[in-house]
Amino acid sequence: MMTNSKFKDYLALHGVIFLSSFSIIVSKLASDVPFLSGKFIFYFYLLNFLSVIFAIVWQQVIKRIPLNTAFSTRSLGIIWGVLWGIIFFEEKLTPMMIAGSLIIILGIVLVVYADE
Questions:
Q1: d(Cα 110, Cα 33) in Å, to the nearest integer?
Q2: Exposure winner among 48, 54, 108, 112, fewest CB in 10 A?
């Protein structure tokens, strides 16, 4: 059974992955505006802010969670990227995206359970 402390560690892990996935949205938005325009500079600073927050929280998370679990779980950012593409940029979900997402989830499950 997972302790309350361990639950908080894993919640922080997934929270930081979720937060870092927003950098995908910001990067895509920045690519659609003129270079060095006001919006570009705003997106640039927002992306750097997200990166700093990610780096700080990530360092705290990997102190408490096994590295193979933390780094394999980090690949969930790819799935968030697929979801953000569908939600914000009207991209189409393909069978290959679904298959890839399932493979990622299966890989994470295998690594996490092998760690226990």
A1: 41
A2: 48
